[in-house]
Amino acid sequence: MPRRRGNLQKCDTTDRSFTISSLEFCLSQLRKADPKLVKKAIASGDGLTESKDDVSTRLSEAHRYAVQQCLDNAEQLAQLHHQLVHCDNVFERLQSTLNGFQSSLGSIGQDMKHLQMQSHHLHQELENRQKVRVELSQFVDDIAVSQTMMKTINEVDANERGFLEALHELHHKITLIVQRGNGDAVAVNDTMPILEGLKLKATCKVRDWLLAKMFQFRKPLSNYQVFQHQLLRCRFFYEFLLHHDLISAKELQDEYIDTISKMFFTYFKAYAARLFKLAMKDVATKDDTLGNIDSAKPAGLGGLFSSKQHVVRNKATVFSIGQRHQILSEDFLGALIVPHAATQNQHAYQFEALFRSIQLAFIDHYSHEFLFITDFFLVNNDEAVDLHTKAMARAMLVVLKSCEEQIALSWDAISLHICICLCDRFVEVLAEREVPDNSDYWSNVQDLLWSRLNIVMGQHYDSVRSVDLKKLMSSGSLDARPHFIVRRYAELTSAHLLIAKTSKKEMCDKMEAVLENSEDSIEQLLTRMSAMQPTQKNKHVFLINNYDLILSIIDDEDSKHSKVYEIVHELEQKSIDDFVEEVLEPHIGYMIKFVNECESLLAQGHTQLLVRYNDKVGTVVANFNAKWKPAVDSINSECIQLFTNFSLGTNILQMIFTKYVQYINRFTKILSHDVFLKNPVCSQLVNVHQVMLEIKRSKPIY
After folding, report:
1. Residue 237 phi, psi dihedral angles, 5° rounding
2. What is the pLDDT of residues 563-612, one digit of tens each?
3. pLDDT tens, 307-325?
4. CA end-to-end span of the chain
5. Alpha helices, DSSP H only, in 144-185?
6. How large is the angle between the packed helices 413-432 and 439-465, nearest 10 degrees?
7. What's the number of CA atoms in the CB half-sphere (13 Å) around residue 449?
8. Helix (H, G, I), strand (E, B), or coil: what is residue 469?
9. Where is each Vps52 coiled-coil domain found (predicted)?
10. How many CB atoms are located within 10 Å of the residue 138 CB?
């Protein structure tokens, strides 16, 4: 009965739910409807006139129907109820099982945490024990002195490899004990006396061995670099002394510096004495100056344009450089000169070759010694520089003195200039090797060279300024052709320019001043010589030929940018311009004068004054028409014979004819002025194109 009542309550609830949902649906539809239609329906009362009794009747019928449905399905509902009760029991047992499992899992988690804590503690204990074991083992190894090490230090020779290894081990033990401190370890107090005894024995053996090696440097003809190599192989010997016996280390350092300093002094003194004996005997002397005319050849051109045969002096080159500049490039780092071998082969050398050899030997030893000192004595910066300076000071002085003596005897300007450039190259080599260059030494050497070069070049200037022109006139060497003094100057200047180019540096101000002074003295000499020429035309030809000789000798792509080349080129152009005017004067001087005067009046705006030149036009035109063709032939034949350089003569001839045509054009332009238009003579002037055609026909071909 209760089950039935429950079913009826369920049906009643279902019916009530259905009614409420229907009502909600109706209300939702009502919200969407048109308010006016709803209002009208309510007002009319359609569908709302059903009585209350009818509604109750319908609801009772629906209730009875629902109850009947529940009664018809009573067995199924009862079966469903039994199944639900059974499921509740099963779920209750499952819940109790899961609760038990959950409690078991909680206890397992606690056990795992406990095991993890135990594992962490065990791991920490293991690590601590291992650290203690490592440090303790290391400490025991550091303070333990083996019988093998003691025997090696006491009995084995210092040259043996085993002694070096034992020395490393001894140094390691002493250093670690000192760094850690004695502390409370009783074993350290037991070990230190033994280590101190071994250290004393080792320092004595090492000191004696190093001193013995250094004394070997003093043997005559010994190769000291072999002994240095042996010292470097046992460099730790000195390091051991530096750490454990500073007094002995300082003693060895002073002994080495003193020994090597004396050795280098002896070596370079002997090498310089033997080396400079190989100098060429036939070198430049005080009399080999630019202006010395006593040793000159009879012909003014030195045989270039003369058919006579002259005897060539068997003398070292004084003014031309030849291949001597190669010492600055290809031969710079070549082999050193070995005096006894050169003497046997009867070789002789220019001063710059000897200078290169001794200075190259010096910087080689200088560089090697600096590297050895920094490597063996474990020094750097200022301390290394000080030691190195002490080691090389004596050798530096003897090399400087030897070079000073030889420089003072030199009269070869080319050689002196090459040596100056060699000094710059040596400084660059030292910089590449990362060795201090000792600027004071190279400054002293260059000062000596510059001072001597200025003296030698001063001799050349004075000799040029004091040339006896009467003596030249009497010897017949003063004509319009290039002079041998100018050729000397050109070759010497070309040598200086080539040296500067080969050194791959811009010419310094000192050398520029030397070349300018030399050019000034030659310019003054040429001015004096040109004044001795019989005619003004010969004067210009003489200057042009000599200036052209200078430019042709120093004609180089780099030399063209030098000040000397620019100065000489300007002087040549001025002389050529004067010569062109001088050549044209006898042939069309009347036309030149007429053109210059008329153009001056036109430039000043005095055109009314041109009227007075109307009568002169006829004379100018008549003279030109009668003489222009012979003038072209005369100019052509004259210029070919005047210049020794055929190419130069052709260019000057072209310039003369160009100027010739320009004067004709300027004259023609003046005749086209209004003042001369009515003059009938103007139309009689020879056409300029006819003149140009004749010039082209007579143009020489070389």
Report:
1. -60, -50
2. 888 899 999 999 999 999 998 898 888 889 988 988 888 888 887 787 88
3. 444 434 434 467 888 888 8
4. 152
5. 147-155, 161-180
6. 160
7. 25
8. helix
9. 71-241
10. 11
